[in-house]
Specification:
Its cofactor is FAD. By secondary structure, the chain is α+β, with helices and mostly antiparallel strands. It has helices at 7-14, 19-25, 30-38, 57-70, 72-91, 94-104, 216-252, 264-292, 298-324, 334-345, 352-367, and strands spanning 110-113, 129-133, 136-146, 154-161, 164-171, 177-181, 194-204, 254-255, 258-259. It contains eleven helices and nine strands. The chain binds flavin-adenine dinucleotide.
């Protein structure tokens, strides 16, 4: 896969000018997603052997932050594609990797489905099931809030199988698959969130990655690792966008005869935004370096990065709205959009509370 000469310029050309309109319309044109995907940019970590860019976690993260600073909806699509590709790369056998990964760097779009109406934070309550039937498997269940499912050509579905769990590659047009967009999401409105119903979907047994039967916690942790890193860097992007917009506005808008930035209470918002952006960036860099070094700390580092960046982005975007005042009180304003998008980052890939529980368990174990 020849890498585009300047991937960030491609984002600035294809995505940035339209992000506000896509948010209001609730959809990104599929051809834009296919163009980014076909350039390998929706899952830059896919190995060159499979036609991907073979980028490391640090490069992928900085690119994700750039995309996230322009459009959290398209960044969310990247997160889903990276989770799907990462799960296939990790759990699939050689033939499954050869079958699916080249497609995911050639314009095919993918989603990753874990959550169910009765299984959000507690994925052990999952009821979607895959059952072996001769040379085939049959998949039945209901997944909810699946990012990018409205655009997807394939969905990597996590399901119970016997005493363990399996990840199954499901073509979106397979008989029995029904994809229904989530109505009026409050943020990342163009990310293609949808419910995925699986009504006795019959597939060849080769659709089950690695033969299946893995322990559910292991399977979930492996897939969420990609998602957490990606969301964390996306939040860095949100903070960068908010810092730039708030600083520019505060430098030129005058009240009481001086620019807003000269009022100390406004300056404090700007200082806090800068601290938030730098702190989130450092947490993400630390986690990316742990991933690239295959460190045993990488799982905790990713949770820490996601929790830090999401919390700071939600708080920072609210501060940016405050600095802009009525200027950011329009649905179409980038800071208003960032504010809505950032709040959702505290919910996905492990809510803030679930991240805190994981980090507290780590702290207690480390102190023993
Ligand atoms: C924008 C968006 C995109 C999403 N994309 C995907 C996707 O691509 N794929 C996918 O599979 N899912 C996706 N989801 C679903 C997401 O993973 C879940 O929403 C998330 O796991 C939380 O589950 P829940 O919404 O059911 O909340 P619940 O689990 O019901 O939690 C509600 C509240 O209770 C708290 N809580 C729950 N348990 C505990 C506990 N033990 N201790 C303390 N507090 C607790 C939570 O932190 C939260 O504050 C997405 C959701 C959103 C909003």
């Amino acid at each position: 896969m020849p890498e585009p000469a300047d991937p960030r310029a491609l984002v600035d050309d294809l995505v940035a000018p339209h992000a506000g309109d896509w948010d209001l319309a609730g959809a990104v044109p599929r051809e834009v997603l296919r163009a980014l995907g076909g350039a390998g940019l929706l899952c830059p970590g896919v190995d060159a052997r499979h036609g991907g860019l073979g980028r490391d976690s640090r490069w992928t993260g900085e690119f994700t932050a750039h995309l996230g600073s322009r459009c959290s909806s398209v960044r969310s699509v990247l997160t889903s594609q990276s989770m799907a590709a990462g799960t296939i790369a990790r759990l699939g056998d050689a033939e499954q990797r050869r079958e699916h990964l080249p497609r995911l760097v050639s314009g095919a779009l993918a989603a990753a489905a874990f959550s169910e109406p009765g299984a959000g934070s507690d994925l052990s309550a999952m009821t979607t099931e895959v059952r072996r039937d001769g040379d085939e498997v049959v998949l039945t269940g209901h997944k909810t809030w699946i990012t990018a499912a409205s655009y997807a050509d394939l969905v990597v579905v996590v399901a119970r199988q016997d005493d363990g769990a399996s990840a199954v590659v499901v073509p979106a047009d397979a008989p029995g698959v029904v994809i229904t967009p989530v109505a009026a999401p409050s943020g990342c409105r163009a990310a293609g969130h949808a419910d995925v119903r699986l009504d006795g979907v019959r597939l060849p047994a080769s659709a089950v990655l690695g033969g299946g039967g893995q322990p559910l916690p292991l399977l979930v942790t492996a897939a969420l690792q990609h998602g957490r890193m990606s969301v964390a860097w996306g939040c860095v992007g949100i903070l960068r966008a908010c810092l730039t917009e708030a600083s520019r506005h505060a430098a030129v808008r005058e009240q009481f005869g001086v620019p807003l930035a000269e009022h100390q209470l406004v300056a404090r918002h700007l200082a806090e935004l800068l601290v938030a952006e730098r702190s989130a960036t450092r947490a993400c860099e630390h986690a990316a370096d742990a991933v690239d070094a295959a460190s045993p700390d990488q799982v905790v580092a990713a949770v820490l990065a996601k929790h830090t960046a999401a919390t700071l982005a939600a708080r920072g975007a609210a501060s940016a709205v405050q600095v802009l005042g009525s200027a950011a009180a329009h649905d179409g304003h980038p800071v208003a959009r960032a504010h809505r998008d950032a709040k959702l980052m505290e919910i996905i890939e492990g809510t803030s509370e679930i991240c805190q529980l994981i980090l507290a368990r780590h702290a207690v174990a480390a102190a023993r």
